[in-house]
Amino acid sequence: MNNTSVIELAPGGVTQASRGLLSRMFADPHLLEPEERRDLVGQLRQAVAEYPEIAELRVLLGMALCVNLEVQPAIEEFRTAVSLAPQSFIAHLKMGELWMRLRVVDKADEHTRHAGLLARNAAQSELARRQGASIRTMRRAGIERGGYKSPLAVFGRLRRLLAVRPKVVA
Fold it and tell me: What is the CATH number of the domain that holds 151?
């Protein structure tokens, strides 16, 4: 992995306009207009084309693609980031977050656990812990996609649903 910081890239890597859009995306992604999201994705794609070995750029592109609702390309960028930098906390955390949002709980848990193991400080540990807690809550609530389970698993979910329903008294 190249140790070059994303901010230290040569001019044209991440432009000042891109930095402004990135700051707004981190503050509140819903505030970006569709045209701004497309511009940001285009600028980050160009930066990744210039510096394809920098995993952090791919993470930023993956995040921008998620905000722009381009899920499959985001998955590919996060996968590439994880393969380029298998020891990257942020690559695993964001990959886990995307899988969590897609409700693919096993993959989300795998990447989030790995991110937790890679955490270098208390803030990173807390991010991974909270994401892991959300994943466990989703799993307990039966909110997940993917994977083939035993046909009998449906009965367990049905039993949980019936157990929490309040009884109507006439």
Answer: 1.25.40.10
Rounded CA gap, 122 and 90, in Å? 14
The size of the chain, in residues, is 170
Evaluate whether residue 10 is within a structural domain: no
Digitized pLDDT (tens) for each residue of the chain, 170 residues in all: 444 445 454 444 567 777 888 888 888 888 889 999 999 999 999 999 999 999 999 999 999 999 999 999 999 999 999 999 999 999 999 999 999 999 999 999 999 999 999 999 999 999 999 999 999 999 988 887 755 455 555 566 556 666 655 555 65
Domain count, the chain: 1
pTM above 0.85, yes or no: no
